[in-house]
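Annotators were shown the component list below and the corresponding predicted structure, then asked to write short factual statements about the assembly.
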Amino acid sequence: MIEQALQGIRIVDLSMGWAGPLACRQLADMGADVIKVESCERFDWWRSWEATPEWIADDGAEKSVAFNMVNRNKRAITLDLEHPDGRDLLLQLVGTAHAVVENYSGGVLPKLNLGYDVFKVSNPNIILLSMPAFGSTGPWADFRAYGSTVEHSSGLPHLNGLPEDPPTMHHVAYGDAVGGLNGAGALLVALRHQARTGQGQFVDLSQVEGLFPLAAHGIMQYAASQTPWVRRGNDSMIALPHGVYPCQGDDAWIVIQIQNADQWRALQALAAPFLDSIDDPAVVVRSELDARLSDWTRTQPAEPLMQQLQAQRVPAAATRKASELLEDPQLVARGYWQWMERAVVGRQPNPSPPFRVGGDLDAAANEPVGLQSPAPTLGEHNRAVLVDELGISEAEYVRLKRSGVIGTRPTLRGARKGSEGLDKT
Amino acid sequence: MSQALEDIVVVDLSGTVSTTYCAKLFADYGATVVNVEPSAGFPTRGLAPLLDTHGGGSAMHAYLNANKHSVCVDQLSPAALAALLARADLVLHDGTVDQVHAASLTMHISWYGSTGPYAEYVGSDALCFALNGMLRTIGHAEGPPLIPTGYQAQMVGGMTAFIGAMAQVLARTLRTDLAALHFETSIFESMLCFTEVGTIGFYNTGLEGHRMGINRFPPTYPLGVFPCKDGWIGLTVLTPSQWHTFCVLLDMPQFSQVALFQTAVGRLEAADMLEPLIAEKLLTLSAEELFYRAQNAAVPLARVPTMEELFQVDQFVQRQAFAEVEVDGGRKVMAPTIAFRLFSTPPRLGGVVAALGAHTSLYQSEGASSGE
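Structure shown to annotators:
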């Protein structure tokens, strides 16, 4: 079973935001025991970076879609790491774990008197995955970044967009999600080495460098020929017509990419008579070709048009809204969205892990990997982890609660500090 | 020094961007990766960009295939191929080959998955960006949406497959009693990691993101890429204190305490008013200087290097973010190295790309020695 592949492996997740938690989610989805550590003052800034008393009173910390999405299948505790008791308990927890993951700003762990050398004292075989934006070495090691900064620094925006516009971004925190995938990969390689040899190690992930593979077409063009990349909008060197064409309705579009004569003839037949007079699209002025194709696509609703074109093996896809993905026929047919009850927010859709048993060899078994639990609430597993597993006494547990080392409600001071001092990288 | 995956054997039967990138991640950490290629070579051997304008092979293939073995399947006996597949820890394929049953762990990477109404649809990177909901948000408000270039979706699919496959390799190290497993990754589903929050956000709030213009998107403003007098600067100003510092850096203190600008959403609503003012200020500043001044003040601004500048960035040079890859004939070309570094068992940086079939004889004897 894929969901049990990593059973018995424990990860201490100190990360916040998108990248680190997404990395740990990948392992939690496959059965690893991922324990997320926040504090009431310095909670995960993806719960909010602009917390107010009203937000706290309204349980805002539990309503962040972004937070809940990347923290499923995990357990959560709170520890004030600036308090000696909180720090000691973290080190006890590290003593039971295979790996620790962190993506604090550079300098935060040393300020807490924590780090790989400290973790090694508690657990000589521990793995520490550090995920700063620029990596943990080099002159920019301590520089800060969000997912957008990561994208900026990779140069990737220079490959996208129109020549008359600025280099164009992907309009999500692109570097974060890619960083999360790289983080999961890094962790698994280190865990596998640990399983084989018993040895842990420090693992350094540069999230910016994680985007270079996605920019490889531009990087390798320059590396090979010293030819600068020219932004061409939706033009393509290998397909014609190639673009995003308007469809019937408000802001409805379809992508069409014609790469060979068969596809062109199929498109021509479906679009008759709009393209009838064109024998070879390569000899028609691009703007004229796009205009004539648009004249036809404007008369068509995007979804059926995609189906018609794809039925003729013409590369085409409607441009979906994010809101339409819950109803996407492919995702519905494959049971991609799994529904779970979550405290405070109720029944929620959750995306399946993007791998499943079956493939073409065993289509009957082609079920998504089952999800086990929704995202935990702040400090939800304090008792289970600290009392039941680390073995602190009931009296000590109460004392820690009273002193604020642990808790289940955020405090306002940390909302500011959490976003300023412990941001992603 | 040992390498973390030096005892692992991976066979790639398909040579798509996704399978080769997934296999590359294994090879970077020392795994023996065997490309089982048809006589015409893997599709990646013809992939743009090429090493030079007159041919000479694919620069993308060079990036994706350093430190791998190449065997020509037409010159390999069926017994040798069966023996190779039988001893492989992992076999990667795209569903168009039929030899995979012999392997105990296989990963099928396809555009949409092997079931469902899109299973037979033609796939591409652009189509995945359209279907995952990202494409609609990129571009001018009036449209059309702008397609991200290159092989990005396939890279994401390959990375995702690596995670799934690597977890199974790890599980098989921890437990020796695991049954054979044939599993799959859909590139389309891999790409949903970027947009799932928008989908679930809509379910909870009924609010839909829309295309607001080039580099303008939630959750904040200023955010984007702007020209300075010596290059491009990337802005991301999120928190109130970052906004205050940014106003100081750009010498526009009059905006620092404006109530509307204290929140990211408020500034985004006022973007049309703020943008010309910010753009005008930035044109008078050095991107290089502003980057360091901002970072030293804990505001995450960044240079946006062009492809030619990328190779000169001190941070990347010091970290060996690019290394030489040698292709057939001795030509060398710089290529990105792997983004994650295990300090005790470091990855291979750069390497040699095998000519088609260069290792066929090495594996020809496998079937014979195993008696098949």
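Statements collected:
1. Chain A has two domains: 2-214+359-421, 242-314.
2. Chain A touches chain B through 150 residues (CB under 8 Å).
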